[in-house]
Amino acid sequence: MTNDSPASPAADPTSAPAAAPNPTNPRGHQPPPEGVYLRTIKSYVLRAGRMGSGQVKAFEQFGPQFLLAYTADQLLNPAAAFGRDAPLVLEIGFGMGDATAKIAQARPGDNFLCCEVHEPGVGALLKRCGEEAIGNIRILRHDAVEVLDHMLPAAKADGSGALLDGVHIFFPDPWHKTKHNKRRLIQPPLVAKLAARLKPGGYIHCATDWEPYAQQMLEVLGADPLLRNTSTDPALSGYAPKPDYRPLTKFENRGLKLGHGVWDLVFTRTASA
Question: Which of 15, 67, 173, 183 sits in a 20 to 30 Å window from 206, CA-based?
Fold first, then answer.
């Protein structure tokens, strides 16, 4: 503090005495205003990482074509974003984007809106899209929950108005420790948001290589009133055969060789709420 700084209240004999500390709130944190609730769902924390020169160049060269800006006050216009009308699939968390690129190439008739916050992963997928001319991918480097809340409308009571034909969530962080399970992405509030934004007949496809998380996914997806499990084989215990469009990742292949399991779950949205 310099000599020109105003005196603190403690040094001013005319100032009012300080309020006694609140034993239930010793740090004096103010509660949110009435009617304002803290958001408890978050798909990811925005994070950066070390990018290679090719990924940096991809942002500059291909970003204008494949990156979309997050808009909190404007709904997504898929036809404008992709330059065509086609079924729209949302992917949440694509990692380095290898599986995403392969799926988009295998399904050229569909559009893929891909949310990821890991900068090197975004750069890697941009590079693939630009170099391999994968024109049916658009990328949002933003928290997917906010994208759902502000850019993708929920269906009306009759099922109309939704934009999504599908949702892909492959190998989300399993948060292995029990005390961290609450951080898992697949929780009832998020699933409710996803189901509400699917067109009737649209699907949610999840995959994980962590069995306790697979069990939680099955429980959470099965409890949502708008969703129906597509698995009909009792031998699969509610899980689905791996759809042909989902490629095996190198990590998945490595795990399978070691005897690890992988569980796919595919649920579809019912006709109306």
Answer: 67
